[in-house]
Amino acid sequence: MTIDIRGRIAELSEKLHFHNYRYHVLNEPVISDGEYDRMFRDLQTLEAEHPQYARADSPAQRVGSDLSGDFPKVQHPAPILSLANAFDESDLRAWEERNLRLLPAGSRLRYVLQPKLDGLSIVISYENGALTRAATRGNGVMGDDVTANVKTIRTVPLRIPVDPSAGAAPPRLVVRGEILFHKDSFLALNQEQVAQGLPAYINPRNTASGSLKQKDSRETAKRKLSAYIYDIVDSEGVALESEWDILGYLRALGFQVISDASLCADLDEAAAQAAAWEARRDALPFEIDGLVLKVDDLSAARELGVVGKDPRGAIAYKFPAEEATTALLGVTIGVGRTGKLTPTAQLEPVFIGGVTVSSASLHNYEQVAALDIRQGDRVIVKRSGDVIPYVIGPVPDVRSGDETPILPPEVCPFCATKVIQPAGAIDWFCPNPTCPERVMRTLEFFVSRGAMDIEGMGPQTIAALIEAGLIQDEADIFTLKAEPLLALEGFAEKKVENLLSAIAAAKARPFARVLTSLGIDGVGATVAGLLTDNFASMADLQATAAQVRDAEAAFIKKTRPLLGDETARDPDVEQARQRMAHPTTDLAPRYLEAPELGPRLERLLRPLNLPADSIAIIAEQLRTLIDASRPLHAIEGLGPILAQNIVDWFTDSHNKSVLAKMGAAGVNMQAEEKVVAGTALAGKTLVLTGTMSAPRGEIKALVEANGGKVTGSVSKRTSYVVAGDSPGSKVERAEKAGVPVISEDELRALLGG
Ligand code: IVH
Question: Do residues 705 and 675 make contact, with C-beta atoms less than 8 angstroms apart?
Fold first, then answer.
């Protein structure tokens, strides 16, 4: 029996070491957090009961670490402790009983209950009210100094108290809290990524971690991180007696403190509230992975002390794991309106966090390959909040050897057209615009609420109309007539009348809506707004796209013969050639404001060793391309890949014919007149940079309502650069170009307050 326990401790230690390494070093966990926690707890229990078998290198004696090579290390003023876990009410009861045994007989405990935020631990120091340092938890003793990055987070006060009337600052205060993304900020960040043609981030916690560990704090500043403070690690001149008072004190100093904390008279009350919390989880603005329960009385908590790295006076009440392992039964392929292929994992049904999950997103084939997920694998699946469950990765340890790679199909499963992967793209596409699945998805999106919003045109109606041969594309909707509709089964007079009047109303949707409805990859409501701000009509957009396409074709035709065609072994030569092959995404945006192209190109193409007259020809072609594409590339918030998508979409022959039919049927293709509030900025061009008091879009609208224009890059034609907090390199460029730099307040003053 004793041999067994020693063996079990050794086995658990080995396994935990392995999984620690997978998680922290390789970033490739093979078991779920829940399974890890169970093992960890088993080991802790065994070691507590049989300390003679605990190994010196036991993982239970160690604190995890987030230290990285990129930041200076700083020592914390006191150990940054962790929490033991409870998984159900009986764990909570056992915890209280253990504690009561250690306290004087007859003690009664009150508790503070608060959500356990799923973010990153941060330790922030203030000296005489000024923020002096911010560090990650690191290994609990030393952390990464991320002061510059943390200072960009708007909910972190740079001075305390934020309200000077709240009294004097303590000489020294070191607080602890959590850095995270609010769900809506994370969504917005991902929308921006997609608008730039970049892949979406997968989970808020890892993205918050990545954002905090940027080497350039301007990058951190661009992400809308939030900080909640919940504890005091060390202080001078602060005397508080309860956890509840700590929260009140932190709030009074101006920290963002979780508003949902509660003070419970006893454990019964805390346990009852804990149960209610689980149901609220998805409705919270941020992700939580459980609750934290703390003994309210600080002197009792001090008396209870610390075991290992966990204070006895506090415990994490973990919600049921949101991850589980299960068998991957197969992969199905979805085709979206853009033709994008999305692999979906079909799973052996598994119960995760209260819901049975039988399918999960695999994101894309590149991700599948990167994670090495194979047909026949056991996989780890995560379900959190309202996001679609997704596969985190395989469990390679339990492979039989019969697993096979998951590859993109050769042909579209719906129309058998050969699938393609455009240069530089992560995704695979069905390129056939008349693919029945694409047409169905296109139409569904076209009539949906955020798009043309045609009531009465649900998926069944669309399918019936396609089936009857009445529509083949979105434009056909606008020429539908009553008689053939009435001949269809289930289309009574009233229904047809309603449908036709909904269609007639949709013809007058605002231009931005019409653009959104087209389903151009990356063009949602935000980007459509940018386009309608800069193009007066569909015809203008089409003309620009056609000019870019022509200039691009001429560029390639005239420059290719100059480059030589022997395959290059030198990577620099290859890279220079690559740029020349994608001038619209790789060259034009880069030199948008360059007054002279010759010297710039000479530098860029030096590895190719071209004669001066070749450079001159390339410069001339590039100038034409830059001028043609400027209307798109000068739009701030619209990246080069997205600009290319737009050009591709508007020059596609199928799309051109759909647009022509829509125009002929009377669909609105003109931008609306702008409302004008004043003319203070008439004829002026402004560039905005840095963080302002309102979202960028609002400041831009304000400028435009006063007759001004906002562009993305600084040139001699810029009238003012408006600099907010932590402005970018645009200020330097403005100073070089002799363009005046003004603050947001000065801008508002220009507008008359
Ligand atoms: S109190 C000594 N309160 O959960 C007690 N922790 O292992 C210190 N966490 O890494 C923790 N929300 O970063 C506390 N409201 C909260 C929390 C919280 C999240 C994290 C913390 C720590 C982990 C506990």
Answer: yes
Residue 112: how many CA atoms within 13 Å on its side-chain side? 23
Predicted structure pTM score = 0.57
* Secondary structure (DSSP) of 457-487: --HHHHHHHHHTTS-SSGGGGGG--HHHHHT
Please check whether residue 437 is in contact with residue 335, taking contact to mean a CB–CB distance below 8 angstroms.
Answer: yes
* 328 within 8 A of 343, measured Cβ to Cβ: no
- For atom 17 of ligand 1, the residue with the nearest CA is 116
Atom of ligand 1 nearest to the CA of 310: 2
pLDDT of residue 481: 95
Q: Per residue in 689-704, pLDDT tens?
A: 888 887 676 788 789 8
Using the mean position of ligand 1's atoms as its centre, give its distance from the Cα of residue 124 in Å.
15
For position 207, what pLDDT does the model report?
Answer: 87
Is the four-CA dihedral 354, 356, 362, 368 of positive or negative sign? positive
Please give the distance, rounded to the nearest whole angstrom, from the Cα atom of residue 175 to the centre of ligand 1.
Answer: 12
What's the pLDDT score for residue 338?
87
Ligand 1 geometric centre to CA of 140 (Å): 12
DSSP state of 26: S
| Cα(110) to centroid(ligand 1), Å | 19
Residue 116 appears among annotated catalytic residues: yes
Q: 3-state SS of 253-318?
A: HCCCCCCCCEEECCHHHHHHHHHHHHHHHHHCCCCEEEEEEEECEHHHHHHHCEECCEECCEEEEE
DSSP string, 36-101: HHHHHHHHHHHHHH-GGG--TT-GGG-------TTS-EEE-SS-----EEE-SHHHHHHHHHHHHH
Q: Is 635 left (phi over 0), alpha (psi -120 to 50) or beta?
A: beta
Quote the ligand 1 centre to 318 CA distance (angstroms): 12
Rounded-to-integer distance, Cα 253 and Cα 169, Å: 8
pLDDT recorded at residue 475? 97
Q: How far apart are CA 235 and CA 232, in angstroms?
A: 7
Asked if residues 430 and 414 have their Cβ atoms less than 8 Å apart, the reply is yes
**Atom 6 (ligand 1) nearest CA:** 116
Please identify every stretch of the chain with a pLDDT value under 50, giving residue numbers as ranges: 1, 63-64
| DSSP conformation class of 337 | T
| List of residues 6+ apart from 254 with CB closer than 8 A | 157, 160, 161, 162, 163, 166
pLDDT at residue 63, rounded to an integer: 44
Nearest residue by C-alpha to atom 9 in ligand 1:
116
Which protein residues touch ligand 1 with a CB less than 6 Å away?
81-83, 114, 116-117, 121, 178, 230-231, 292, 311, 314, 316
Atom number, ligand 1, closest to the C-alpha of residue 83: 7
Nearest-atom number in ligand 1 for the CA of 314 is: 5
- Selecting among 15, 73, 116, 183, the annotated active-site residue is 116
- Minimal CA–CA distance to 171: which of 210, 125, 203? 125
What pLDDT does residue 616 have? Answer: 94
